[in-house]
């Protein structure tokens, strides 16, 4: 379970959001909805430590952590909107890089984990390809595999269907629903209402529910 409490972010005097609170259980998908430019991406970056929060705590499976704490950010896997894959590395190397660099796995363990994830996500044949050789949907699934390689407790997605066609969008939805069955908590920022309806157990309307003063 993840419970976010009183998360606030501002740039100088401009308040992006204030005292934002939400929670989701393990095996639950929460969709954060709202139009582009309203602060959804800033929220996800703040939660995962890429932006500095002015205040906020997260209770993760009974343990309270400050937003920005390295222990918290290590337990949240972030899937970027633009994938952020390393163009000079193969698909498999993109997945094994972080576990090896952080010394959470040996090279052999990371390779075995990557092979398992690639098979699970239907990407085994793409293991030795480079990102430029992949479709948008394949890149998104590689991003998911890369996040899963670090064994996160929560996965956060920033507009995971942006730029994807109907087939690729369904593939991403299928992956998320499979992870849900495995008990993974997932937080998805999106303006894609049909997609949110297909995958989410609950929704959070950023425009209506967020305070800015």
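-> sequence recovered:
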């Amino acid at each position: 379970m993840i419970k976010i409490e009183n998360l606030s972010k501002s740039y100088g005097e401009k308040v992006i959001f204030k005292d934002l609170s939400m929670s989701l259980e393990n095996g639950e998908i929460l969709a954060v909805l709202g139009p582009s430019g309203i602060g959804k991406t800033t929220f996800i970056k703040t939660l995962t430590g890429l932006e500095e929060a002015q205040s906020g705590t997260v209770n993760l499976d009974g343990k309270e952590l400050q937003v920005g704490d390295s222990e918290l950010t290590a337990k949240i896997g972030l899937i970027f909107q633009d994938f952020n894959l390393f163009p000079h590395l193969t698909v498999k190397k993109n997945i094994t890089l972080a576990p090896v660099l952080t010394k959470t796995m040996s090279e052999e363990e990371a390779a075995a984990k990557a092979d398992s994830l690639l098979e699970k996500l239907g990407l085994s044949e793409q293991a030795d390809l480079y990102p430029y050789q992949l479709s948008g949907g394949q890149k998104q699934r590689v991003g998911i595999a890369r996040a899963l390689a670090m064994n996160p407790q929560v996965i956060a997605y920033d507009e995971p269907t942006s730029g994807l066609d109907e087939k690729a969008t369904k593939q991403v939805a299928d992956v998320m629903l499979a992870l849900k069955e495995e008990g993974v908590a997932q937080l998805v920022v999106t303006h894609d209402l049909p997609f949110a309806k297909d995958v989410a157990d609950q929704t959070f309307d950023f425009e209506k529910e967020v305070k800015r003063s």
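The two ends are 29 Å apart (CA to CA).
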